Amino acid sequence: MDRCFINGNWWFFFHKKKMKKIIVFIPLLITLFISALLLYFLIQEKDSSVPPSTLINKKSPEFSMVDLFQDKQIFDNSIIKEKKVLINFFASWCAPCKVEHSLLMEISNENPNIIILGINYKDDKNDAIEFINKFGNPYSFIGIDDTGKIAMDFGVYGLPETIIINEKGIIIFKHVGPLTKKIYNEDIR
User: Fold this and answer.
1) Fold held by 64-188
2) What are the structural domain ranges in the chain?
3) What are the pLDDT digits (tens) for 11-32?
4) Could you give the CA distance from residue 38 to residue 57 in angstroms, rounded to a whole number?
């Protein structure tokens, strides 16, 4: 009986030593697993700076806005029916909007067949008019979104944002941040 007990102790001692070695390797195994997951996501060709849009390949939201220059003139989706449209959300207080504005002027001059709809987001009307007078007007129409409802309907959460709608009224492109020549040449043109 003593022999069994002794053998039992040896068995317990032997397994206890083995368990300590396994416990030492558990943090290493967890670290390797997390590193493998991170590596997997890093090698994916998704740009983490570009948030996914639930509106891509969906119909443009309905909207109605007051014209920036003529308070009484109201326009809505009917101005963009069956046309290619670039919608640009901007504000006079938005520094990146000023950076991309010259490119919008260039796009407007090069593409007279595209409607560029400017939507002035939560801005003072006089400041917006001064902004357009100072930097030029690349827009076919400029509407006022003083409450932010239109921007919310389009899923806008930072300025500037640019959205492209095809002739069927389907949103086919969305870019958050200022447009650059590279983005214009590779993604929009």
Assistant:
1) Glutaredoxin (3.40.30)
2) 1-46, 64-188
3) 555 566 666 676 777 777 888 8
4) 30
